[in-house]
Amino acid sequence: MAVTSAVGLDCCNLTLILGTVTLCFLTFMLQKLGVIFQIFHKVESDSTRHGGELVAEVLKEHGVKFVFTLVGGHISPILVASEKIGIRVVDTRHEVTTVFAADAVARLSGTVGVAAVTAGPGLTNTVTAVKNAQMAESPVLLMGGAAAGLLKGRGALQDIDQMSLFKPLCKFTATIKRVCDIVPVLRKAIQVAQSGTPGPVFVEFPIDTLYPYSLVRREVGMKDSASGFGQAIVNWYLNNYLNNVFAGAWEKQDMSPLPVNRPFASLSQVQNAAEIVSRAKKPVVIVGSQATLPPTPVENIRAALEKMGMPCFLGGMSRGLLGRNSPIHIRQRRRDALREADVVLLVGAVCDFRLSYGRHLSKKAKIIAVNRDKSQLYKNSDMFWKAALAIEADAGSFIVQLEENLKNFRCDPEWLKMLQERDGEKEVANRLKSKEKTEIHLNPLKVLYQLEESLPDNAILVADGGDFVGSAAYILRPRGPLCWLDPGAFGTLGVGGGFALGAKLCRPDSEIWIVYGDGSLGYSIAEYDTFTRHKTPVISIVGNDAGWTQISREQVPLFGSNVACGLEFTDYHTVAEGYGGRGILLNRANENEIENVIKEAQKMCKQGHSVLINTLIGKTNFREGSISV
Question: What is the 3-state secondary structure (H, E, C) of 208-252?
């Protein structure tokens, strides 16, 4: 009897275990198939609403005013819904321009910039601009279409693994699997884009999450009557998939912005920095683009720098931070100043190639580095420099806090005076260089100096090029904070059209100037069509020397060949006219009319026309020895 009872008990246990395993397996499958989710969330099969409406509502709630796009069927619901609720939809001639324009909006508005493009090649065309936004630390939301979830990996039109492309480039990536996920995913994406070190984020929208239920049901391919058991199973699976996509789609959700998380310097860190600076005899401040990021208003940062009175070198987006003619803004001979300084503040600046990897920093100097990004904060500190104080925090707010802790500090006027005199000497030399006659066409420096004298106080400068733009960076002086746009550390060519478009939409009353090289112009001249259609008049001045001169300057002396560096003196002004703009040719024949040509371009721009000044220039040795790699 005892043996029989034991066997019976084992059988009961086995039955219980098998039952538990079976129940767990069934629960897992029901969960995976979304059946359990559907029990608690209603499918409104009669609703005519679509996922694009939720996208638009979230964007509106987050203060988004513009969506840049190149239209495609995958994303039509987003565009239609956005326009319907008052978000301006701006379509461009190349997808890369959509992200460049969104990048400019992010920089100038202090909020997220938004682009939406279609699946496959639409998204691959944006990769360069997304990487540029990552390296420029711009909060950009890229939304891309995708094949329906059921068809992924089955050879659908434009179906590729898009997530693998964007994961290395973006702070956050997500694929929408249910319509009800659109709101929380977008809120999270926008929050991440602006938090910490800002950067791009990517959200993928399979086409069946954007279109109405009835249309998606028709396209899924269910047969009205099942001819057999096999077809019945297929119909059930397809119907379950469809219901899983739309379950809970129109339930009320919170669409308001999530709090943005930013790192700030602690009081003790600021006090330590103030103690170091207070003992400085020859301090220098290097201000990088990161200092212009929210939340600290750029006007407050400018005021703090001016009160401290330390000589400042400005780079990237911080150009113009101190206005056109600030006495503390030093533009020339930065290398010499860094070697002589006893305290150097790297405020949002990075010791990469732009600062010669830190090699120009004096070994005797005390270096205070402030950056939101830890990897950038310590860049090359293991090789060429060491920080006396490294602070992983927001650069702009640190400047304001530092000034508040240095109430009685004033920089040695003799140190500042010496740097100003050097600046003046270099400026005189540059002016003399601008008067030299080139072998053919115009001296580019002469043209740039005339442009500098002609720019209004509300001008925004967009830099897109190599050699000509490199010269312009020495000559042109941004009129104020956030009045200079360049690609940043990635050195991307082709940003001009998109940056100018975004800038004009953010600052409609400003005069937008694109400074192009003739090589870089080729990337975005087609956007003159966009400027015309969307009534966003801008002016571009093209330094046309018929070549990739930045490269040629090194390649020819090194290798004795100009291969692949030559272009033609193309009639770019005529091309602009073909796209609806106005074109002006500036060459030696009208050299004495440079000022009048610029004024004529400004007049036409005020009348609503986008203008291109095709400036034929000759060669100078102004930037001899400058690097291109």
Answer: HHCCCHHHHHHHHCCCCCCCCHHHHHHHHHHHHHHHHHHCCCCCC
Q: Which of 263, 299, 285 is nearest to 402 (CA)?
A: 285
Residue pair 120/158 in contact by the 8 Å Cβ criterion: yes
The answer, yes or no, to whether the previous bond of 295 is cis (omega within 30 of 0) is yes
Q: Is 165 left (phi over 0), alpha (psi -120 to 50) or beta?
A: alpha
Confidence of residue 18 (pLDDT cuts 50, 70, 90): low
pLDDT at 222: 67
Partner residues linked to 345 by β-bridges: 285, 368
Q: Do the beta carbons of residue 85 and residue 119 sit within 8 Å?
A: no
pLDDT tens string 471-501: 999 999 999 999 999 999 999 999 999 999 9
For 491, the token pair is 């050195």
Q: Which two tokens stand for residue 233?
A: 């199973």
Distances (CA, A) of 433 to 501, 592, 608: 34, 18, 36
Report the candidate in 317, 271, 270 with the shortest Cα–Cα distance to residue 291: 317
- Owner of token pair 């891309």: 144
Residue 468 · residue 73 · CB < 8 Å = no
How many whole angstroms separate alpha carbon 524 and alpha carbon 542?
12
- Beta-carbon contacts of residue 43 (< 8 Å; ≥ 6 apart): 213, 243, 246, 247, 249
On whether the CB atoms of residues 109 and 140 are closer than 8 A, the answer is no
Q: Which of 83, 70, 71, 78 is nearest to 51 (CA)?
A: 78
Tokens of 139: 């909060």
CB atoms within 10 A of CB 602: 18
Contact 338, 361 (CB under 8 A): yes
pLDDT value at position 234? 73
Residue with structure tokens 């819904």?
81
Burial classification of residue 16, based on how many CB atoms lie within 10 Å of its CB (0-12 exposed, 13-18 middle, 19 or more buried): exposed
Model confidence at 40: pLDDT above 80? no
Q: Can you read off the two tokens belonging to residue 103?
A: 């990048």
Mean pLDDT of 364-388: 94
CB atoms within 10 A of CB 342: 16
pLDDT for position 520 = 97
User: Beta 66-70 vs 88-91: how paired, if at all?
Assistant: parallel
What is the pairing mode between strands 343-347 and 283-287?
parallel
Instruction: Return d(Cα 371, Cα 376) in angstroms, integer.
Output: 7
Helix H or strand E encompassing 514: strand 512-517
User: What are the two backbone dihedrals, phi and then psi, of residue 89, each rounded to the nearest 5 degrees?
Assistant: -100, 120
Stretch (H or E) spanning 31: helix 2-32
Is residue 227 within 8 A of residue 18, CB to CB? The reply is no
Of 566, 564, 600, 565, nearest to 583 by C-alpha is: 600
Q: Is the dihedral of CA 309, 314, 317, 322 positive or negative?
A: positive
Averaged over 13-38, what is the pLDDT? 62
Amino acid at 28: F
What is the reported pLDDT for 21? 62
Given phi > 0 = left and psi -120 to 50 = alpha, else beta, which region is 101?
A: alpha
**Whole-number average pLDDT of the chain:** 92
pLDDT in tens, 537-556: 999 999 999 999 999 989 99
Predicted TM-score (pTM) of the model is: 0.93
Please check whether residue 594 is in contact with residue 446, taking contact to mean a CB–CB distance below 8 angstroms: yes
In this prediction, residue 382 has a pLDDT band, given cuts at 50, 70 and 90, of confident
Is 509 a residue whose pLDDT tops 70? Answer: yes
Question: How many whole angstroms separate alpha carbon 271 and alpha carbon 497?
Answer: 44
